[in-house]
From TrEMBL:
<keyword id="KW-0503">Monooxygenase</keyword>
<keyword id="KW-0560">Oxidoreductase</keyword>
<keyword id="KW-0288">FMN</keyword>
<dbReference type="InterPro" id="IPR051260">
    <property type="entry name" value="Diverse_substr_monoxygenases"/>
</dbReference>
<dbReference type="Pfam" id="PF00296">
    <property type="entry name" value="Bac_luciferase"/>
</dbReference>
<feature type="domain" description="Luciferase-like">
    <location>
        <begin position="24"/>
        <end position="395"/>
    </location>
</feature>
<dbReference type="InterPro" id="IPR011251">
    <property type="entry name" value="Luciferase-like_dom"/>
</dbReference>
<dbReference type="InterPro" id="IPR016215">
    <property type="entry name" value="NTA_MOA"/>
</dbReference>
<dbReference type="GO" id="GO:0004497">
    <property type="term" value="F:monooxygenase activity"/>
</dbReference>
<keyword id="KW-0285">Flavoprotein</keyword>
<protein>
    <submittedName>
        <fullName>FMN-dependent oxidoreductase (Nitrilotriacetate monooxygenase family)</fullName>
    </submittedName>
</protein>
<comment type="similarity">
    <text>Belongs to the NtaA/SnaA/DszA monooxygenase family.</text>
</comment>
<dbReference type="InterPro" id="IPR036661">
    <property type="entry name" value="Luciferase-like_sf"/>
</dbReference>
């Protein structure tokens, strides 16, 4: 029997602080003004996407003791933006990344339950533990929890939030034309949580929201992170958009579900993916090369090289050869608080390998950084991109993709106009929304028992 065709899930990531966004392009718009968010969300909804996604960053990045000012800086608050977007969209899911390390469950549960009400059941929470020790300095906690503790806090945080969501069952409020709205059950909202991280009791004051519980995403990649997702999440935001790494990640995570009595279709794998379109494959490749040069200016290349060299390289010429001095061993002082630094566990070996690569290809510092950095995931004509995305999903490299355009806010328009119709023609993407909640779009079960619409046809 052949495998049923999988329907593809698509989402749009409004980029925040990052090096994917080409802010120097004359077509690039604001990352703060509401009109940018509204344009992006409306395009995603016009294209029948499952949801819009916002990441979280709670501190201006620094490098070498100075503000890192080569990328987009500054980022408005997630809940405020999503609440405003709820008012200008009808069906699009609204996913916000909110960390469990520096917040409190009561507050976060109220915010998500409220967003779920305001949006008629479109809210989702990407629970992250945060990767930046630096961020903690902005909060009362004053630092960072060790990794194991971050995940045990995350787990208890989510359990506690679920207890709060479930403290209302939905039938406590009765609307009576004569007397107005009244509370039938005096126990509504009562909760008690006694745990290692939280010891709280009281009344939750937001009645049960349309989805019962918002959809839960997870984004950590470690063994603890994957286990957390397998036990508790509805979807994972991953970084594995390539065919081979995607399939390995997919198999690994889905195989963890049975331990928790869960089915493979109860956890969706949705990697972040970038794309470049052209009229032909060759034209798209050409545009992609140009975009990578815009993403990695000479100044950016030097700063990124510092993540490996762990020393000030500002005196080097980005169009010249790689530094002959070796990386500084020991504690990383230049890029304190930058997650990427962890990727280079052996900086001396990386430096050696890169010098050889650069010498063999005649590459400057900037060329090297461009070639070893992230390539766009899907490059080609609309037809090539539609076929490739479909092939990856059918090959179980993903259940769909969270697209990250390099232009904000207009970078999604071309995908909506040229790729989505081809996916619809192939019968692998919805022609219209069939349900109204995000759980409906994602084919997820409803916590109150209703089974989600299945994705497979
Ligand atoms: C694809 C991806 C996206 C992430 N997005 C965010 C984010 O927006 N904000 C944040 O604070 N942390 C984010 N994280 C960090 C995770 O929450 C987590 O703290 C970090 O990956 C360390 O956990 P790990 O060791 O399990 O990977 C992201 C991680 C991944 C893999």
């Amino acid at each position: 029997m052949s495998k049923p065709v999988k329907l593809i899930h698509l989402a749009a990531h409004f980029p925040g602080v990052n090096n994917t966004t080409v802010w120097s392009d004359p077509r690039a718009g604001s990352h703060i003004e509401f009109s940018s968010f509204a344009h992006f969300a409306r395009t995603a909804e016009r294209a029948k996407f499952d949801f819009l996604f916002l990441a979280e960053g709670l501190r201006l990045r620094e490098q070498g003791g100075k503000i890192y000012d080569l990328d987009v800086v500054g980022r408005p608050d997630t809940f405020t933006v999503l609440a405003a977007l709820a008012a200008v969209t009808d069906r699009l899911g609204l996913t916000g990344t909110i960390n469990s390390t520096f917040n409190e469950p009561y507050e976060v549960a109220r915010q998500f339950a409220s967003l779920d009400h305001l949006s008629d059941g479109r809210a989702a929470w990407n629970v992250v533990t945060s990767w930046d020790a630096f961020t903690g300095e902005n909060f009362r906690r004053g630092g960072f929890l060790p990794r194991e503790e971050r995940y045990s806090r995350a787990k208890e945080f989510l359990t506690t939030a679920h207890e709060l969501f479930d403290s209302w069952q939905g039938d406590e409020i009765v609307a009576d034309r004569e007397t107005g709205v009244f509370l039938r059950d005096a126990k509504a909202g009562a909760f008690v949580h006694e745990g290692h991280q939280f010891d709280i009791h009281g009344r939750f004051n937001v009645p049960r929201s349309p989805q019962g519980r918002p959809v839960v995403f997870q984004a950590g990649d470690s063994d603890e992170g994957r286990e957390f997702a397998a036990s508790s999440a509805d979807a994972i935001f991953s970084r594995y958009a390539a065919l081979d790494t995607g399939r390995a990640f997919y198999t690994d995570v889905k195989s963890r579900l049975a331990r928790y009595g869960r089915r493979p279709d109860q956890l969706l794998i949705l990697p972040a993916a970038t794309f470049v379109l052209g009229d032909t494959d060759a034209e798209a490749e050409e545009i992609a090369r140009e975009v990578r040069r815009q993403q990695v200016s000479g100044a950016t290349a030097l700063r990124q090289l510092e993540w490996v060299w762990n020393r000030d390289l500002s005196g080097y010429d980005p169009d010249g050869p790689l530094p002959e001095v070796d990386p500084l061993p020991g504690e990383h002082t230049v890029a304190r608080g930058r997650a990427q630094v962890r990727m280079y566990r052996d900086p001396l070996a990386t430096a050696r390998e890169w010098r050889e690569l650069a010498a063999a290809n005649g590459w400057s510092i900037r060329d090297l950084v461009i070639h070893t950095g992230n390539r766009q995931n899907f490059v080609g004509s609309p037809d090539t991109v539609a076929r490739t995305i479909d092939a990856y999903v059918q090959a179980d490299a993903a259940d769909g993709f969270i697209l990250v355009p390099h232009l904000t806010p207009g970078g999604l328009d071309e995908f909506a106009d040229r790729v989505v119709p081809l996916l619809q023609e192939r019968g692998v993407f919805r022609a219209d929304y069939e349900g109204s909640t995000l759980r409906d779009h994602l084919g997820l079960d409803h916590p109150d028992g209703a089974r989600g619409k299945r994705a497979a046809s």
